[in-house]
Amino acid sequence: MQLFLDTANLDEIREIAAWGVLDGITTNPSLVSKEKQDFKKLVQEICQIVPGPVSAEVIATDPQGMIKEGREIAKWAPNVIVKAPLTPAGLQATSVLSKEGIKVNVTLCFSTNQALLAARAGAYFVSPFVGRLDDINQDGSQLIQEIADMFAIHDLETKVLAASIRNPVHVTQAALAGADIATMPYKIFKQLVSHPLTDKGVESFLADWNKAKDSVGAVVAAK
What is 65-102 written as a DSSP string? Predict the structure, then answer.
């Protein structure tokens, strides 16, 4: 399963990209608005930092507006993915854009039927929202598994992108449920690598080394 960062903050992106494990970026209008930068320039800079897919969402709510914006966004960088909501207008725009060779991430998916419609419209990604389903006492990981199974049964090429990740457990559940990708906020990405026993182990190894470094160094020098 690939790991995406859900942010538009350049500092966060640079930090996680330096780890060598970042596969792509997802953004949305809320995340972009926080950065108070020109949308196009911000997306282009992100695309230079991360060579993988970078999702940039349309703002229009009508099909023609989405298609027009999608065509423009697709020109910004080779790795841009146009993002559109899972609405009738979004499906219509996805169908048109995908036929033109433009990759579309269909977002705000909350059911298997919605995912099927997105796939049939030609979506490159479909983004089921795990956390928001959990918020209303529905099993988001079960939805991921149902969509992944359905796509496998019918040989649909659309990739399942688990979104609205609220904690590291959601990442594990998405991977086990068959998601192709999980996208998560910076805070959650940082939590994936954190474990108290790892920190304790590093501290212990360094303490032992510092106690013995003079004698160990002498042996190394003698060789």
Answer: HHHHHHHHHTTS-TTEEEEEESSHHHHHHHHHHHHTT-
Kindly tell me the burial class for residue 34, based on how many C-beta atoms sit within 10 Å of its own C-beta (0-12, 13-18, 19 or more): exposed
User: Rounded distance, CA 175 to CA 169, Å?
Assistant: 10
pLDDT, tens digit, 9 for 90 and up, residues 164-175: 999 999 999 999
Q: Which residues pair with 108 in a beta bridge?
A: none
Which candidate in 75, 83, 99, 223 is catalytic?
83
Is 187 marked active-site? no
d(CA 205, CA 19): 22
CATH architecture entry for 2-194: Alpha-Beta Barrel (3.20)
- Tell me the per-residue pLDDT of 91-122, one tens digit each, with 9 for 90 and over: 999 999 999 999 999 999 999 999 999 999 99
SS (H, E, C) 34-77: HHCCCHHHHHHHHHHHCCCCEEEECCCCCHHHHHHHHHHHCCCC
Q: Look at residue 199 in the predicted model and tell me its pLDDT.
A: 79
pTM of model > 0.85: yes
pLDDT for the residue 221? 52
